[in-house]
Write a structure and sequence with these properties.
The chain has 308 residues and is α/β, with parallel strands linked by helices. The protein folds into two domains: 221 residues, P-loop containing nucleotide triphosphate hydrolases (Rossmann fold, 3-Layer(aba) Sandwich); 67 residues, 2-Layer Sandwich (Alpha-Beta Plaits). Helices cover 33% and strands 29% of the residues. The protein contains ten helices and 14 strands. The radius of gyration is 24 Å and the shape is elongated.
């Protein structure tokens, strides 16, 4: 698929010498959901702010829909909707007027039908005459999304869209994001909730210390970097792993009642059969066996550890 956003050799440095972004290269495909993961201070918000024109890059280039964000800013910005982390809404305005005003900021003509359609899409229509101050935190976040969609952008940036939202509302928001994708909007979200990325993203990007560590299809990433573990519960506790089993790199639980064996799911052989045979030969009696697939969180933690 073609890239609707292209970031080339992007660098952002501040007066004190701190580099928030270090030669970032990133292509975002038209119509995808890209989840950008990273620890606090990794550069996620700086990257989004720079693409959206809020922060001026030190060097490098960014294009949105073929428009350079420096030399053709207005055309590029019209294609972008941004939902910031902070809820900064006028409390005494109604939902409808808040969203309509944002449409006017981008030079779009008044279109009450379009605004109402957006509010219906985000389950806000029954709240359209309510003042912002009357809404819950989850509803206010939906209003932020409605504001970002008011001028009909092709690309939507969601910076921590479910921060501070309870689990039920978070899952509702996932449904909203899926619906936006179905309507043709390209979505880039930053999140601290790794299960959020695992649930809704097409591709995963990992950023740490201002550098993109990888951008990959979620399924491919899980397949290539995922591991499986077998937890072998023993009938009797062991003080140490028998020398005959040392080659398996087993981990012993603190209580000595279980052993953990990790293996690569993409390998030709898992080694499980020989392990179980050698386990019996070593005089250990197995009580139970459990398997566990590594999650995206495991993969993310491993990647960030490597750059620490």
């Amino acid at each position: 698929m073609p890239a609707i956003v292209s970031v080339q050799n992007l660098r952002k440095a501040y007066a004190g010498g701190f580099e928030a972004l270090k030669s970032v290269n990133l292509d975002i495909e038209d119509g995808e959901i890209l989840a950008l993961l990273g620890p606090n201070g990794a550069g996620k918000t700086t990257l989004i702010s720079t693409i959206c024109g809020i922060t001026v890059p030190t060097s490098g280039s960014i294009t949105v829909g073929g428009h350079d964000t420096q030399t053709d800013f207005r055309a590029a910005r019209k294609l972008i909707g941004l939902v910031p982390q902070e809820i900064n809404l006028e409390p005494f305005e109604t939902v409808f007027s808040t969203v309509s005003f944002s449409r006017g900021l981008f030079g779009k003509p008044r279109d009450d039908a379009k605004v109402e359609a957006i509010l219906k899409q985000l389950s806000l229509h029954d709240k359209k005459d309510n003042k912002i101050m009357m809404l819950s935190g989850g509803m206010k976040r939906r209003v932020l999304i409605a504001k970002a969609l008011a001028h009909e952008p092709q690309v939507l940036f969601l910076d921590e869209p479910t921060a501070g939202v309870d689990v039920e509302l978070r899952k509702d928001m996932w449904d909203v994001v899926a619906g936006l994708k179905a309507s043709g909007v390209t979505i880039i979200l930053t999140t601290h909730y790794i299960e959020e990325a695992e649930a809704i993203a097409d591709r995963i990007g990992v950023i740490s210390k201002g550098e993109i560590l990888l951008v990959q299809d979620k399924a491919d990433l899980m397949a290539q970097m995922g591991r499986k573990q077998i937890q072998i519960e023993l009938a009797q506790a062991v003080d140490d792993i028998p020398s005959a089993l040392k080659s398996y790199a087993l981990e012993r639980a603190d209580d000595g009642l279980s052993l953990i064996y990790s293996y690569d799911t993409t390998g030709e052989r898992t080694g499980i059969t020989t392990l179980l045979n050698d386990l019996q030969k070593a005089g250990l009696q197995m009580k139970d066996l459990q398997t566990r697939q590594s999650s995206l969180e495991d993969i993310f933690v491993d990647l960030v550890k490597e750059t620490a």
